[in-house]
Amino acid sequence: MTLAERLRREGREKGREEGREEGRKEGREETALNALREGLDVKLISRLTGLSVERIEELKKNLN
Predict the structure, then answer these.
(1) Which of 9, 18, 28, 55 might form a disulfide with 49, Cβ 3.0–4.6 angstroms?
(2) How far is C-alpha 29 from the geometric centre of its chain's CA atoms?
(3) In this structure, how many other beta carbons lie within 10 angstroms of the beta carbon of residue 56?
(4) What share of the chain is helix, strand, coil (3-state, %, to 5)?
(5) What is the pTM of this model?
């Protein structure tokens, strides 16, 4: 494998991993939004999703 091929492969792998992480984050945020709609406590949502209380508060502001 040439250096260029290896660098391309590593770049693709990094891009896929970043995409998966972004998807996981979006999923946690969607779960948090659903929980907010159901009236769950922000701190509980934070514990369940791993999102910060600050991020959940931002999501909550955008709901209204």
Answers:
(1) 28
(2) 6
(3) 24
(4) 85, 0, 15
(5) 0.80
CA of residue 52 relative to chain centroid, distance? 11
Helix, coil or strand: residue 39: coil
The tokens 């369940």 sit on which residue? Answer: 48
The number of angstroms, rounded, from the C-alpha of 43 to the middle of its chain's C-alpha atoms is 17
Using CA atoms, how far apart are residues 60 and 39, in angstroms rounded to an integer?
Answer: 11
CA angle 8, 10, 12 (to 5 degrees): 70
Number of Cα atoms under 13 Å in the Cβ half of residue 12: 6
Give, for all 64 residues of the chain, the pLDDT tens digit: 898 898 899 999 999 999 999 999 999 999 999 999 999 999 999 999 999 999 999 999 998 7
